[in-house]
Amino acid sequence: MESFLDDTFDVKAKHAPDEALEKWRKLCGVVKNPKRRFRFTANISKRSEAAAMRRTNQEKLRIAVLVSKAAFQFISSELDSPHPQKNENDYTVPPEVKAAGFDICADELGSIVEGHDVKKLRFHGGVNGIAQKLCTSTNDGLPKDVDALNRRQELFGINKFAESESKSFWVFVWEALHDMTLMILAVCAFVSLIVGIATEGWPKGAHDGLGIVASIMLVVFVTATSDYRQSLQFKDLDKEKKKISIQVTRNGFRQKMSIYELLPGDIVHLAIGDQVPADGLFVSGFSVLIDESSLTGESEPVMVGVETPFLLSGTKVQDGSCKMLITTVGMRTQWGKLMATLSEGGDDETPLQVKLNGVATIIGKIGLFFAVITFAVLVQGLVVRKWKDGSHVDWSAEEAMEMLEYFAIAVTIVVVAVPEGLPLAVTLSLAFAMKKMMNDKALVRHLAACETMGSATTICSDKTGTLTTNHMTVVKSCICMSVREVGNPSKFANMKSELHDSALKLLLQSIFNNTGGEVVMSKEGKREILGTPTEAAILEFGLSLGGDFQAEREAVKLVKLEPFNSTKKRMGAVVELPVEGGRLRAHSKGASEIVLASCEKVINSKGEVVALDDSSLKFLQATIDQFASEALRTLCLAYKEVQGGFSPNDLIPESGYTCIGIVGIKDPVRPGVKESVAVCHAAGIAVRMVTGDNINTAKAIARECGILTSDGVAIEGPVFREKSQAELLELIPKIQVMARSSPLDKHTLVKHLRTTFDDVVAVTGDGTNDAPALHEADIGLAMGIAGTEVAKESADVIILDDNFSTIVTVAKWGRSVYINIQKFVQFQLTVNVVALVVNFSSACMTGSAPLTAVQLLWVNMIMDTLGALALATEPPNNALMKRPPVGRKGHFITNVMWRNILGQSFYQFLIIWKLQASGKSMFELEGSDSDLVLNTIIFNSFVFCQVFNEISSREMESINVFKGMLNNYVFVMVLVATVAFQIIIIEFLGTFANTTHLTSHQWGACVLIGFIGMPIAAILKLVPV
């Protein structure tokens, strides 16, 4: 079966093509309830609509860009002309907009940005003119006037896209009623009611029909309740996925705000990896490169600046940083319309969902075949009996009812035999796991990631912020060739007094101008440092040396800023020095050995600029190695006087610098990381560190975490890149640390591990450039705190606390999901096999079925909805991380499962067959009701077999199945509810369920028969497979 499923019901966990998704749906053929079976699958038609919308956007934007270029050239020529034409624009401000105090409406703003309309923009006075008409300031943002903000929201809208309304509980009831077999049974019940009342009168004649109706309603309401709860869980998770914050200046203060609170007129600060939250205009910034592929499908990035200031919602900042003015929000943007369509497309179905749909389809066909045979055998028995009696021509109402009962039994066999609950159990287990993982600081973006993480064999982890705390401080420095320990006020004071004034001035100028961070005043009047932890540590270092951020910024004019780039591993700035006659100076900061390699001079202890000779170079390199061996992150700061002019379009020089100094930044290892790495090793999961840091720093941290062992290899990215294919095959399994790695190195390593070595790879990432590796990996794990929006969007799971221990928790939950579904499959297939064989064999041998339609519906609910609730929601335990991973080639339905299924099925079939054959003598049953009592005993024994088998299924290989059972309150509640309702069915609902009162002796025997299945299950577990 496994090989058949792999061939026909196999889809990728990530990026499955639509053809593969269509294929398995067709293979499923006729299903009992398509509304329910395909509820948690992708809506391919909606995805096609989204793709068509992207193509339309691409064409619109292409035309808009061409028109704007032509308009820009026309306007430029008009301005150069001695007789410029009068600018004609018939725009008038709508009265309601004017009354609210604004001079431009939402439609006009939308047409300017979406249409890239340079002419209209110029007519309205450019970006500053638009800001004035929106009653905002490009420096201070919107004023904090609640009434004014509310009026603005009423006129221009909110930054949210339309979402489909949540389904009510009654919608799920309606969908549950669409089960084909339940509808057929409902028709049977209706006919039974009519015939029964006509022949036997009310209420006696209505018992059978009402029994089936009551059973159908019970199944429907229990199913609908379970499905409704799942939908609420997914709704909560969707809300969490959409929580995106961004830096905004409002009322003169920089603050973090949800993108859904943005209004036209807001001033937003964008950096590399941010998603543009709404349509708007570029105010100021440097080197801004925008990736519009999410909106248009166009892969070529677009430069945005003063000449082309248009920023579109949903696009990504690929490079640079800027301030933007929000102009259009929500459903008025193309991104809003696209997202409304995409949200209806849904998540891809997971590999297990598809595989279990395959199992349900195969068993369903077998069940349908046996149901037809059973019906044929039962009808043949009735016809033969009537033929012998000579009454084959005359049919009474009782015989018609008997025929109807046979048909109902056949249909119910299909109900029980088709394990419709299998694929839905996957969804239930995943929804439960995702909700619990959210509490454990892991937000699952794609359902399949839960499954796949359970099979992970390798984790490629970042160092900074994942293995370390990401709380950075400068603890050592080598400024002007003098190594000093810093960290407290007295040491900073000594250092400041020892440094030459010119050297200190250069150092502070470099720190405060060549940075992606900022020092601002909070609403409470306190100093606040914004930026990455590394930037914050350097800025804090500058402030401790007596620097003034604002004063240093105002003393120079920033000509160009190139943000830190993980490929170049450095950042740069060019400043103009007005007080020094407009002289230009470039500053560089980044990976110590890379920046140092670009230096030709150095500032000595006297503050003099001297040539960087061999002895000085060796001293600085030794200092870098010393800092790195102490697990410090090292950065080098350098400057260069720029000759011959410089324009913002020029590249910042990469050589000829003067070294100012080196700083050593302490980033302590997170508590519990070493233990978590040890857990991974015990679980057969290899942990590799992939970092952009210095190799000595990386090795020191890796040893502290337990990642780098005596037989492991630590390698640098540039060395890794030079290796041949044959060398890589030998090297990659030994690599435990990769330092100074580029995003391409990470991508190459992940690709080789997945394809060449068949590993299931989980990769962490936080930067924009990590997106390809996150995309390539089986499970992409983005950092929730340090991660960019681009990284988060490419990831499958977001680690909300950036902690490696949380990644191990995700792996544990992944294994739990996989094993829980295996437990449920084992349990359900056992019930399927027994119910099918019992009713079929009994029909063939005795001409009647021991389990009626109502009883089979109850059994179906025990094994389907209640069974899934009990077994698919088992929380993880530590023992899960002491077994090897399943890996890529592992079979889902294992030999161990087949052993347990067949062994338990054989026992149950044997006991029920024995009861049918010798039950009356065993229980000394006599009289007219002996058949009813015996069938009740058979039904009761069968149900208790399932109850105890449910307990046995908690562990597929361990004999102790009671361990931790009381901790799973859902499991206990399901067991108690099943037993309680079984007692009610037997003792109080006999008229409807075709059961009768049993004595205490008979009850004891039924429970004992069920209980014996547990020691048999334990013995089976000793049988090697």
Name some characteristics of this structure.
53% helix; alpha+beta; 1025 residues; 38 helices; single chain; nine-stranded mixed sheet
Q: What characteristic shape results from the CA principal axes?
A: elongated
Low-confidence stretches: 79-88
**DSSP E strands, number:** 26
Measured between the Cα atoms of the first and last residue, the distance is 17 Å
> What's the helical proportion of residues?
40-55%
Biggest sheet architecture: 9 strands, mixed
Task: Compute the CA-based radius of gyration.
Answer: 36 Å
- What average pLDDT do the residues reach? 83
Count of helical stretches: 38
- What percent strand? 15-25%
Briefly note the structural class of the backbone: alpha+beta
Overview of this protein structure:
- This protein is an alpha+beta fold and 1025 residues long.
- The chain contains 38 helices and 26 strands.
- Strands 10, 11, 14, 15, 16, 17, 18, 19 and 20 form a nine-stranded mixed sheet that branches.
- The longest helix is centred in the last third of the chain and has 43 residues, at 804-846.
- Its main location: membrane.
- Residues 122-197 form the Cation-transporting P-type ATPase N-terminal domain.
- Catalyzes the hydrolysis of ATP coupled with the transport of calcium.
